[in-house]
Amino acid sequence: MMLPAQLLAFTLLVAPSLVSAGMFPKDSLVKMLDHKTFKQAMKKNETSLVAFVAPWCGHCQRMVPEYSKAALGMHPLVPAYAVNCHAEKNKRFCSEQGVQGFPTVKLFPRGDSLPPMLYDAERTSSNFFYFATRRIPKAVTKLYNVNEVPGWVSGNKNKHRALLLTKEKKMPLLWQVLGNKYSHTALAFASHRDKKGKSSIAMGYEAGGPKEPKVLIYPEGADKPMIYQGLHKLDSLTKFFDSVLDGTADLSEAFEKAKAEEFVEDPEEAEILKKQEAQRIALMHGGFTDLIDFEKAMLEGGANYHDSAGYGGMMGGIPEHLKKKDAAAESTVSMASTGMPATTTPPLTQAPEATERPKDEL
Ligand SMILES: *[C@@H]1O[C@H](CO)[C@@H](O)[C@H](O)[C@H]1NC(C)=O
Hints:
The chain is α/β, with parallel strands linked by helices. The protein has 3 domains: 19-133, 3-Layer(aba) Sandwich (Glutaredoxin), CATH 3.40.30; 140-260, Glutaredoxin (3-Layer(aba) Sandwich); 267-345, no CATH class. The chain contains 14 helices and 10 strands. It has helices spanning 4-14, 35-42, 58-74, 88-96, 125-133, 149-155, 173-181, 198-202, 234-246, 251-260, 267-284, 289-301, 327-338, 351-354, and strands spanning 31-33, 48-53, 80-84, 104-112, 117-118, 140-143, 160-166, 187-193, 214-218, 226-228. Strands 1-3-2-4-5 form a 5-stranded mixed β-sheet, sandwiched between helices. It is elongated. 2-acetamido-2-deoxy-beta-D-glucopyranose binds next to loops.
């Protein structure tokens, strides 16, 4: 049985949305764009989905809950947007975008710097999720063996370099997203699977915890890396990389700043995380086949999307030195990190391992 609070969160999630002027329910993570905000969004060089819709169109209305679920699942790594083409101010923009029927959904693999792709699959949440997360342009060099690290480091010496040592089978979606966002900048990305920490040791570091990732930064021209000690989440890493690339910032200052950023719970993000978990709770209670598919999509297509504690897409947990020390804060952090009520103990973070995979992927 679902607890009332879970049920409520869940109902909010899947209830057929009212067709309001905004079309998408208030709590939906789908962000409405117009021709101006579209331009701004595209400047960020992110992979995103954009649905061109009209409020009167039945297929659009039926798509709303599915698209919203996908938006929730992909948050915050792959944004889902919508444009109301019925609005006078957007009509011209929609026709420029070649929209001839509703809904038209397009994937923009890298803002406006790569051509969009037309979404032509069935409009279910898991299809949206697969379609978007699998088409993030591959911009991260995979280093299968630790012996390949020095060659990659010296081969890209004229750039800053960011190397992820991950314990996970699949490259975290977060790292793919960052690699894509920063491709064509003076920052090169690589990833190496350091399953048990042996590579870390070979490189002179500690093995680290079972899921603990390491982000090593080789500043332009340097042979020796510095270790990034901030939070492994999208906004923190973006801020850090921007300041590294900016060039005006003192590099060691950027490292210090990242290291000092404590994990502060953002109530809005915590709420989103709870809803992300609600999809998984629903799965455990054995119903809602569409959610089962979606969960499968998350696990199989999502590059250990929900593997870790913290916010959606975060790699590993919260580094020890960034955890708040007092007990009250500690319990908040651990709630946020599981997103689960304390009474339920679903071992879902283990699901990816439990799923048999034919062979190791990096
Ligand atoms: C987006 O990528 C293009 C090259 O594809 C680059 O010229 C531009 O500066 C990038 N924008 C941002 C905000 O990084």
